[in-house]
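Protein Record: Sequence and Backbone Structure Tokens
======================================================

Structure line: whole-number tokens from a learned vocabulary of local backbone shapes, matched to residues.

Purpose: to set a sequence beside its fold so the mapping can be learned.

___
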Amino acid sequence: MTGGPEPLSAVARAAFERELADLRTERETVAVTLREGGGDQVGDRADQADELQRVTELQRLDARIAVIEGRLREGAVAGPPSTDEVGVGSSVTVRFADATETTVQIGEVAEVLDATMVTVDSPLGRALLGHRAGDTVTYDTPEGPTTAVVLSLGDAS
């Protein structure tokens, strides 16, 4: 990623919004157990440990919610992906070492049923980031290092 606001594909935005809704529901559930169990009651060590665990879980949920909200804001202001250089949201046509060609989308979130999605933290995704049409990239596969040529790129939104 470039360090500046990164574009967010429609698929990634939808996945983040689903995760955010789930996290908010989970957070409310945990918060309710704290309110119900709180107060001036003095419990045994097990009760105190349980409450501490719920507080820790609430902090974890709050941190993840903040990250997702920030990424959604960033994606909203980033504009469309560059068509000059591979980045998040790019649609990239590549030719692999075996001469097959395919178009993949560079995203942050893998969709189980989307065989064209390549995440930025996958070997191919990392290799493609920052490259331009005509560049050859090298990346690792289970069979060993291989190459791919960037044929063209565009907006995957």
